[in-house]
Amino acid sequence: MERIPQGKPLSSLSSVDPLSWGVAADSLKGGHLDEVKHMVSEYRRPLVKFGGETLTIAQVAAVAKSELGVKVELSEGARAGVNASSDWVLEGLHNGVDSYGITTGFGANSRLRTKDGAALQKLLIRYSGIRFEILEAITKLLNHNVTPCLPLPGSVTAFGDIIPLSYIVGLLIGGPNSKAIGPNGEPLDAQEAFRVADIDSKFFELQPKERLALVNGTAVGSTMAAMVLFEANILVVLLPEFIDHLIHKLKHHLGQIEAAAIMGHIPEGSTIFTMAKRIHEIDPLQKPKQDNYALRSAPQWLGPQIEVIRFLQYLANPVTTHVQSIEQHNQDVNSLGLISALKTAEVIDLLKLMLTTFLVALCQAIDLRHLDDNLKDIVKNIVGQIAKKTLTTGTNGKLRPLRFYEKDLLQAVDRVYIFTYIDDPSSATYPLMQNLRQVLVEHAMIEGEMEKNPSTSIFQNIASFEDELKVVLPKKVENVRARVENGNAAISNKIKDCRSYPLYKFVTGPLGTGLLTGQKVTSPGEEFDKVFNAMCQGKIIDPIMESLKELNSAPIPIC
Fold first, then answer.
1. Which CATH number belongs to the domain containing residue 165 in this structure?
2. Backbone torsions φ then ψ of 147, nearest 5 degrees
3. d(Cα 107, Cα 110) in Å, to the nearest integer?
4. Catalytic hit among 43, 100, 314, 501
5. Where are the alpha helices (DSSP H) in 181-241?
6. What confidence tens digit (pLDDT) does each residue in 500-553 have?
7. HEC-encoded secondary structure of 348-378
8. Domain stop point among 199, 217, 235
9. Which burial class, exposed, middle or buried, applies to 406 when counting CB atoms under 10 A from its CB (0-12, 13-18, 19+)?
10. Is the pTM value of this prediction over 0.70?
11. What is the mean pLDDT of the chain?
C-alpha cells in the first residue's frame, strides 16, 4: 500500500524520488499488523480528497462502503488542469487536427476517419479531455449515496471496463433506461437520481472525447481489487491461533514470526489458559500429548500468506494461466483484471463464511465453558456439604477421626468431564457417582479395623451419602442451569479477562447471538447469517484492532 507523507505534494516527492522507489520501500517497513493499522486509520477518515495524485486501497474501500458516510472532495488545484485539457481537445478539433478516438476509430480501427465527430462519440471510448462539471456531478452522487446500477460481469479489462462504466455514463446523460439506488435502497431513474444528489445542471451532453474519458478506464476492476485486498488484509489478522516462540525465531521467516506473535499475544495472561495450566499440573493425564496438527502448524502456513499479500498490492498475475492477446493483436495482453477481482471477492466471501463459522463455534465453546464452570462449582459445593453431613459427623454429633475426605472427593469431581454425567448427575452408572464411590471405598480399605466400628465405618455411610446426593444434586444443577441461561450466573464468564473479549462481544453483543440449546428453535445458520452480515459491513475491524492494541511491531526478539 502506497503511503505518501501528509502535506507533501507528489511533485515535490518526484523531484527527489522520480521513480518512487523510496515510497515503495517505506510502505514495506514494519510488520503486517502495522500496515493493517495504517490502512484502518485511513479507512476511518471522514474525507477523501481527489487530486489526481494518490489514492490508497483503504480510501477506495472506505468510499465504496456507503454505511461509513465517507465524503469525497475534488481538489480545486486540479480544476485548471482539467479545464485546460478539455479546452485543448475542443481547440484541436476545431482546427482540424486528427485526434485518436474523435476523428478516428480506436485500436486497429484508428486509421478510419469520419466527418461526423459528434455521432462518433456514441461509440468511442478513451481517456482525457473531460469537463470539471462532470467530475463534480459524480462527486455529488457519491456524497449523497446515490449509486448507479451496473453489472459487474461483462469486462475483460483490456481497453477498460467498458460495459460496467457505460451504465454510469448512461445515468449522467439521462438515459431513459438508466437506474440508480438511493440512500435508503430505493430505485431511482436518472431524473430522480439528479434530484436526490442535488445536481443542479441538466443531463450532460458529452463533448468530444468525454465518453472516452468516462468509460475507457479500469475503475471497476481496480475498485473490486482494492476492496478485496482491504478485506483480505483485515481478515488475515484474525486467522493465527497457535505458537511456539523458539521455533519461529530460529526459522527467521518474518511472516511466520508475526503470525506466531499474534497467536501468543491474544491468549497471554487469560484466566482460561491459567486455569488449564493449573489443571494440567494437578493431573498431567488431562493434558494432550500434543496439539492438533492443523493448530500447531498454523504459523508455518499463515506466515507466507501474510508476506505474499503485501506484495500482491503491487504485483498480480493475470487470472489466466497464459497470456491472452486481444482479438486484433494490436495490444499486448488482456489482463482480465475485473474477472480476477471478482473471483478474489468470491474467495474473500468464502473466508468470511469460514471465519463466521469459526467465531460462532468458539463463542459457543466459551459459553459452554462458562456453563461448565458454574455447574462444576455447584457439584463440588454440594458434594462437599453432603460429605461433611454424612461422613464426618457421628451419631452423637462429634467429628469422626480421619474422616476428612472432602479434598479427595473434590479432586475426583475435577477429574471427571462434566458432560459425562450432568444430564443425570446422581446416576449410579455415570462416572461421577462411580468415582466418588471409589474414593470412599479406597479410604475404607485403608482404615482396616476402624471399619468394624459402626460409628466410624465408611462403608455403612456410603449409601446415605449417595441417597442424599440423589435428592439434592439434580435440583441444584437445574437451578444453576436456569440462572446461567437468564444471565444471573454466580461465576462470571472468564472470557472477560482475555484480550479476545472484543471479538466475543462482537459476536454475542449487539448481534444478539446466544448459546444454542435443544429447547430453542434458532438454527446455527441463523447465527452465522448475523455475524456474516456484520462482517460484510466492516463491523469486525474495531474488535480485531481492540484485541491487538497492545501488540507492537516486534513482539518476539529475532535471534
1. 1.10.275.10
2. -115, 115
3. 6
4. 100
5. 190-196, 210-215, 219-238
6. 888 889 998 888 888 777 777 778 888 889 999 999 888 888 888 888 787 765
7. HHHHHHHHHHHHHHHHHHHHHHHHHHHHHHH
8. 217
9. middle
10. no
11. 76
More confident residue, 255 or 327: 255
d(CA 437, CA 447): 16
What's residue 243's pLDDT? 47
- Taking the C-alpha atoms of residue 108 and residue 330, their distance in angstroms, rounded to an integer, is 6
| Residue 359: Cβ within 10 Å count | 24
* Contact call for residues 91 and 175 (beta carbons, < 8 A): no
The whole-angstrom separation of Cα 53 and Cα 43 is 18
Predicted confidence at residue 117, as pLDDT, reads 58
CATH of the domain at 467: 1.10.274.20
210 with 358, same domain? Answer: no
Looking at the 3D structure of the chain, how many domains does it have?
2
pLDDT at 122: 46
Range of the domain at 132: 75-217
SS (H, E, C) 120-157: HCCCCCCCCCCCHHHHHHHHHHHHCCCEECCCCCCCCC
Cell triple for 30: 514494519
Provide the grid cell at 284.
498431567
Is there a catalytic annotation at residue 405?
A: no
Helices vs strands, H then E, count in the chain: 23, 5
**Amino acid sitting at position 177:** N
